[in-house]
Amino acid sequence: MASNEGRIPQRFQSIKQVIIVLSGKGGVGKSSVSTQLALNIYSSSPNVRVGILDVDLTGPSIPRMLGLDGHPVYQSSDGWVPVFADGSEGRMSCMSVGFLLKKRGDSVVWRGPKKNGMIRQFLSDVRWGELDCLIIDTPPGTSDEHLSLMEHLAPVHSKLSAVIVTTPQAVALSDAMKCLSFARTVNLPILGLIENMSGYVCPCCGEISNVFSTGGGEAMAHREGLNFLGSLPVDTELVTLLDASSLNGDAALEFRNEESISFPLMQRYKATSSSKLFEAILEKLLNLERCNQAIG
Ligand SMILES: Nc1ncnc2c1ncn2[C@@H]1O[C@H](COP(=O)(O)OP(=O)(O)OP(=O)(O)O)[C@@H](O)[C@H]1O
Ligand code: SF4
Prior knowledge:
The protein has helices spanning 8-13, 30-44, 62-65, 112-125, 144-153, 170-185, 216-224, 236-245, 249-258, 264-270, 273-287, 290-293; strands at residues 15-22, 50-54, 74-76, 79-81, 83-84, 92-96, 131-137, 160-166, 190-201, 208-209, 228-234.
């Protein structure tokens, strides 16, 4: 796998901010938080340009969540052209190993060096152009992918930081602590922590009930001196939305035609209660000064 490592600084020169989304445990909602972060940043201003790089090599889900499954990636003489979200007028772009697999469901079984090569190639070869923010969705835990990202990005980008996603349960919190420890070890500033699947939004009346424990993420943030960015309840509307985005063929067309206005995913997302809650999270993020972000 050829890569052009020397191009990484030049590629990242035109990207104002890079946010790495981390979680200690799988399935806590890291990819859906990455997707929501991108959608909220996109809609925060009419000229904002946002990219998502999905480096969850063994379980890429961003193309599915953005409704971009199966889109081809073009290789130009100057590198890979990212995939643009339908109707986003080129303001939301995405790159994922999911676009490079022959079919959805194919798995990537790679050892460390090959994974590192892929990440290096993503960082050096994707033509993001000017971006206000690049969000990087990572695999759960802290592994080759995270080390590789830090090795290549920390020396070239001064606005590199992370968001940690956890659920409130003890097992997820204990894994989130490992992420925090990783971030501290590699001097990665943490913007804050989001507690996902915290309570349940009733689809009938919108009331939030605490089915499982809640508040564990907030308590951990306070204990560790992190910014607590907010809680997101289990939201069936959000699941329906992200699952519908993954439809292919006729079903997807039918879904898209219901909302013929540009960027149908965004229209649907804005109607969910998660979107309102995430607006507050973004507000907090935007207000954070970088000097308050660094920890440890
Ligand atoms: N707040 C939420 N309410 C309801 N469903 C959610 C919520 N957050 C995530 N989900 C759903 O839970 C599932 C797992 O979420 P997601 O893929 O974002 O997790 P993940 O941490 O990225 O997982 P992994 O890294 O292990 O692939 C998805 O089907 C997603 O739609
Ligand atoms: S939250 Fe309770 S009261 Fe509200 S609709 Fe659901 S079941 Fe009924």
